Amino acid sequence: MSAKDYLINEITLAVEKNGRVYISELRGIKPVLNFIDEGNILNGASVADRIIGKASAMLLVKAGIKELYAEVLSESGEAILKKYHIPYSYGSKVEYIVNRTNTGMCPMEMTVKDIDDLNEAETALRNKVRELAAQAK
Predict the structure, then answer these.
(1) pLDDT digit string (tens) for 49-60?
(2) What would the pLDDT profile of 41-94 be if each residue is shown by its tens digit?
(3) Does CATH number 3.30.450.40 belong to domain 3-136?
(4) CB-CB contact of 84 with 58 (8 Å)
(5) Longest dimension (CA), the chain
(6) CA 63 to CA 41: how far, in whole Å?
(7) Residue 115 in contact with residue 76, Cβ under 8 Å?
């Protein structure tokens, strides 16, 4: 089975590396950040995700993934994958990832819209996650 085959039910992200599969049911960029923080199991891995925008793509590229499948891929996410020569496939492509209320661009996409540096993107995204978590309290 490939990582793509694990995107069933509530699974939002599947990672296959060295014959082991890691999965997450978290939404947004949180599963990617968690896998990076847990010793970066993403390095050299095949990854499948439900939604990949520029934010997730930048984090995955920085983490060193081998290849990616996205059920939905944004144009800016695709541009990042092409720029860093990451093999990818997708189910459908969209102009940009929408926010959860379908009223505009995803806040993570917006955060990295004008950022090209992978390190700068990760810092900005982690700050945005903290900011949104604080607002939710």
Answers:
(1) 999 999 999 999
(2) 999 999 999 999 999 999 999 999 999 999 999 999 999 999 999 999 999 999
(3) no
(4) no
(5) 40
(6) 8
(7) no
Q: Would you state the structure tokens that stand for residue 49, as one six-digit string?
A: 């995700």
CA–CA gap between residue 23 and residue 26 (Å, rounded)? 9
Residue % of the chain over a pLDDT of 90:
82
For tokens 């999965």, what's the residue? 23
Altogether, the residues listed in the chain come to a count of: 137
For the chain, state the CA radius of gyration.
Answer: 14
pLDDT at 9: 86
For the chain, domain boundaries: 3-136
Q: How far apart are CA 116 and CA 137, in angstroms?
A: 31
Burial of 121 (0-12, 13-18, 19+ CB in 10 A): buried
